[in-house]
Amino acid sequence: MIKLRRTFEVPYKEYNLKVEQTEYATNGRYALQAYVDGDPFDTLTVNIEAYDRDFPQAKVIFLNTNHCPGIKEALQDAGLIEDLRCKVQSGYCMYPVVRWLR
After folding, report:
1. Distance CA 9, CA 35 (A)
2. More confident residue, 8 or 57
3. What are phi and psi of 59, to 5 degrees?
4. Is the pTM of this model over 0.70?
5. What does the pLDDT read at residue 40?
């Protein structure tokens, strides 16, 4: 089955991102991919399966703020996420945990 991919416009720094919402094949958790002018910009989420039991909902996502500082605030301003005020760790990186609202 092909999953519907939805896109949303998000202002971020000097860019007008098109954020595509899809899902990871391994666990169904939502995934976000950003594009600028049709070209890939960055993957805004990480899939850390070690936390699947702690955060079983597909709409709870881990933001990759290491690649895109300020992306959490941009997605909040666009009304797309709710900050759950916690972080998860993978290696040396910490990732904010947020709920996708769309």
Report:
1. 10
2. 8
3. -80, -5
4. yes
5. 96
